[in-house]
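Narrative progress, year one. The postdoctoral researcher (J.K.) led the effort to move from monomer predictions toward full complexes, under supervision of the PI. The following entry was the first complex the group processed end to end, covering 615 residues in total.
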Amino acid sequence: MQKHFEIAGKKLKSRLFIGTGKLPTYKIIPQMLSRSKAEVLTVAVRRINPDSKVENILDYIPKNAVIMVNTSGARNAKEAVRIAEIGAEITKTDWIKIEIEADTRYLAPDNEETVKATKELSRKGFKIFPYITPDLITAKKLQDAGAVSVMPLGSFIGTNKGITAKTLIEPIIKEIKIPVIIDAGIGRPSHAAQAMEMGADAVLVNTAIAISKDPVKMSEAMSKAVESGRMAYEIGILKEEDYAKPSSPLTDFLNN
Amino acid sequence: MFSDIISLELKKFKKIKRDLNRVSVSYEEINEKSLLKNLNSKLELERLALKSKEITDSFFGKTVLLYAPLYISNYCVNGCSYCGFSATNRIERDKLEDKEIEKEMIALKEKGFDTILILTGEDRIRSGVGYILKAIKIARKYFSEILIETYPLEQDEYKKLIDNGLCGVTLYQETYDKNLYLKLHKFGPKKNFEYRLNAIERAVKAGIKEVNIGPLLGLNKNFDFDVYMTLMHAKHIQNNYPEVEVSLSYPRMRSSVSKIKTYPVTDIDFVKIICLSRLFLERVGINISTRENAYIRDNLIGIGITKMSAESKTTVGGYFQNSSDLKQFEIEDSRSLNEIIKIIEKKGYRPEFTNWVKI
């Protein structure tokens, strides 16, 4: 298996990115990272409180972890840009996940506003990871706008439904040159493995780890699934067939 | 505006209620009919709570947001027959000056709060929009999320406050039964039922990020009506303005502190109301204040609620300097923030303090 994969100028070993949003405690973050070997954590700017008298999530994130801040709560490009800049300043990261959701019921990303924000923030030199409803044309526009990756949703956030948008994500993986990270909807290790088998470069998991009974162990389970899925993808996944194929082919003798 | 459709909702309510014995109880997908059926039925509470917990955890995670209310003025020109701050009550009136507001806010910030709810009575002269604006400007120095619970404002007034850092508006309709409303609110601008009802949408049109609505349980003999209408109101906001975060509160009146006849909602019905609200509007925020006692609050963590106030004072000021005993209502849970934090953590949840970006 490939030792590293490159994204936004960084060489990473783990293709599992972990979200911090719904965790029962921030204290387990270091354990989660050591058990799962994940290197990238996403943190919502709206949850960071640098002058907190009680708790600041940044105090729990190991120095060697890569922080990707997200703009969750932004309703349009203008708000996202502002939130991104504040987040980058507080955390000293330039990895920004653009998350613009103008519908609080489905938390459906607004692709149009996301393209706008990506253009502006890429121009300013940030590494932009836009979270989108899977759409090939939007993905192309984002690539042209300077995004370092695209993050299509597998299903809506928090739904644990798996990669129900598979047929829309496949052409993105096939046609887009920048890394594709499947984000949202991954509820089980098998979903994470499936993302890897499809050829996604990485997955981002939050809910399925955070609200499980044991987030530390679940992060490890997800990590193993990501590894297996990726290994199989690199070997080459076999095609599905309509008819049975005997394991010892009948015409094998002709090859002798 | 919701006032345009409330009569339709009323008709729908009556129709469903008339045919209620043809509807069956449901623990899965809840629609208007099963909602009302469930509100009026004996339910398997454990089953309901488990479902409510599952949905809450999945949408909100293992977290509970903590916030602090700060009363800055209790001047009030309304005659609400159930309220301690009513104009007819001969109580000492007080409002905080700028410096006092700042001292109170610093005291709250020092405790660890990052979300503040600023409250006033209704008095456009002594606590005018300019006064509220000043309080918001001070709050902006310390808090990342600023909410208000004041009298209803005009759209351009909301806009001005939002431009200066306001994130959310809390406004309770008290009851959606107009006749009862007119009976309970004897005089003052609050007598205008529709003006209050539409205030939330004026705030939304002005660009507010969050709204919090609810009835005052105990006023209406038929709590199912007010709960049903609150949910229809919330649904109306969600459907028409999906970008807005909607939350619900179900403050309960206690008969012991009220001068008027009240219809207390039992603990069982209260839990039912919270869980059914969760099942009906999955992604809605649900608040619980310190009006509720420690026992109820602790046990509701993880069963549907997403926000809690803590260490509340319902007197004007009271965090930095001691204030008089003029309360709007009695606080049932007066435990310290640290105690509340410990309880939340013991339940396997994380107390969340920060809910927005300090801009």
